Amino acid sequence: MSDFDAVVIGAGNAGLTAATSLQLAGLRTLLVERHNLPGGCATSYRRGRFEFEVALHQLSGVGAEGQPFTLRGLFDRLGVSDKLEFVEEHDLYRAVVPGRYDVTLPADWQGAADALAAAFPGNRDRIERFLQLVRDVTFWQIAAIRGMPPEQVDPVLFRYGLRPVKDVLDEFFDDPGPKSVLGTYWTYLGQPPSRLAFQDLALTLYAYLEYKPWHLVGGSQALSTAILDSFLGAGGQVRFNTAATALLTEHGRVTGVRLDDGEEVTARDVVSNASLPVTYAMLGEHAVPAAVREDLATRRTGVSGVVLHMGLAATPAELGFTTSTTFVHADEDEERTYAATRTLEPARGICVTSYDVAPIGFAPSGATHVSLMTLQYGDHWAKIPPADYARTKFAYAQTLLDRVEAVAPGIRDAIEEVDVATPLTMARYLGHPGGAIYGYDQDRTEGWLFRNSERRSHVPGLHLAGSWAGPGGFQPTLEAGARVARRLLRARDAA
Questions:
Q1: Are 436 and 302 in contact (CB under 8 A)?
Q2: What is the pTM of this model?
């Protein structure tokens, strides 16, 4: 008899939802996590009077109560809905290019169209047609993902789905302004408009406009803790400060894991929320199927980031923050901004999150917690000599402050607490190659049409969940863990 029915490696979003789904379904499940608390990216930590949110900028997919196809249904199934308090953001984002535009988009289809039309006169018809295309492509993409036969799918998906975002925006607009504002979410996906599939941007825009952006009281750590508590309440077992170092196999099938203290734990199924390179390395070089080696050789490690966390002794209004989410870019040249992610030149584009425009409890009265983030690949950070690392990261963080001063000119004077994370921080904490935050580069070759890592590991008994096996981000990984668990349960029932 196996020690457990299932072992789940990693207590990030997908690991937590997979483990809890399995345990609630009656499988004896062990969750192993190399850190001392759950969450991975979905966590927070204290600095002085402040709690710093690590990674959650906007949670998509929550929707209103009673709205179908939302994360609320998943949270209900996990038994955590009554443990979570959601805070709605009424604006999608504020997009700023100093001297060119300063536009705030309401989190509403008509409101967004009105704001764009007011900011860029003469474009209303184009804006409304573009937003309708976003809805159409998303509808038919979801239908295709759910198995609708190709001959029944509207040709609009085939005409636009895989085209680069840049090409589609160029088709609709002559003015670079609306193109820049409507394409802003490319930074959430880690790829520039010239490489990002339109269907991916459309799905992101749809998720936030239709289901609104949200935060959580207590931050993402409150969500991670609630899911873990549900797992433990159902009888699941967790081992913190414990890493899986090897996958046990017998006759080509995974049969358990070896832990970092040498203990071997057997299980019929293993779900890995670790990166694909780390997961397959645990098999041993000679046990990795040729199909997997060939697949991994064609994929590129994705982007990481630099994040400046700040506790500020001023209110959002005093600082000039009018929305929870603000994007500030040097100009409308997204290609140059993306190219800068592979250099240490001053940050050209930042995502600013002010967690106290709609407070989540992370700052005391009269203060605010703000994070500034910019995309950065990890390879050039890995080449920095250790003796120069601290100086380099704080000097680079100053360039993020330079950029945010366009909307918050007195922000430096209000700094009370500060911390900086780089791709090396991400790599050390997450265990991801290059500190990648979205897994592999999410270009058009990584979409659901071309990759199927989540559905097939090529190794019986091994199941893959998380951003390295599918799309990155909070909603996709939360859903992925539960989806992998359902697939595993169906396979067991059919055996």
A1: yes
A2: 0.96
